[in-house]
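Appendix B, Record 12. Input sequence as logged:
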Amino acid sequence: MLVKFKVSNFKNFGEDVVFDLSSSKGYAFNSECIKNSVVNCAIIYGYNGVGKSNLGFAIFDIIEHLTDKYRDERYYKHYINANCNSKTANFSYEFLFEGMLVKYEYSKTDYKTLVSEKFWIGNAMMVDFDRNKGNSFESKLKGTETLNNTIRDEQLSVLKYIKNNSVLEDNPENRAFKEFFDFVERMIFFRSLEDRFYLGLDPKKSSLTNEIIEKGKVREFEEFLNTAHVKCKLSVVELLGKKELAFDFGGKKILFHEIISTGTSSLLLFYCWYLQILSSDISFVFIDEFDAFYHHELSKMIVQMLKKSGIQFILTTHNTSIMSNDLMRPDCYFLMGRRSIRPLSQCTDREIREAHNIEKIYKAGGFDAE
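Logged structural output:
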């Protein structure tokens, strides 16, 4: 799971901005929001323009050079922060896999071009590559001793090169290395705002409604929509030799995509990704403005579904009605400012207890975001 992330000189992030998920406070309530003393369920608030979406893009920059999963370069234009003199954007990740801490740092001049990579397991640096010092890397991973350690391709990650060209020994360090890759390859970032967009995993081969039909989930999707107060009955109709999802009005059927609202379209997107979450295809999910088109009760229901799944998730929102100790806890709600991302529990000097109305405190200016 992701423990800590740091970024600098990327998009609107100039100096180091740290997102630390290891600062759990030890609250006794909603303990399912924490795993291994790390925040497993996080919701981020912040003014428009502070970089909530860019935080997602920064975290998911890693999939470009470590995986062959889906990415979209349109969102990585203007890569380097315009106010900085440095020529590289810098990224640092810390993960926890079965009690073992894994750290990965790298720098880039643009979305494709790598300058340096460093990889630690515990306190031991296992891989070190800095193109400013030459084209050769050092690796202490058992099984890489005879590997050609020269890489001239500036768009080739040394970690990906090792993964694809080595027969690594079976030991705790190499298992952590493989778990690291497995986690990154199953990360997903999506949103449904002015565009429907995602990063990570493999490209979807069929439409969302066809995916529901093919997986035999029409009745479950109908139940999900009704629970979300979209009262409907669904049917499958055949049109030009293809099966299509439709609303069933008894004597008349209308194709689903022809009359759905923006909110229902957003629910469709969430439901299809949620099916993959339940099948353990996804390791980590980031949903930007997850409830932009939802009623506040529906927003709460979605959070509860994600909590129940056990997946580590990060959501961004402006909806304060779900900022409640009944749903999560003060060390799981984060305030994002221009220079920091901190949990509510660190944004005030007062002690926050379960009975406190944290939404009311937030609206009254009781939490300070730097």
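The chain has ten helices and 19 strands.
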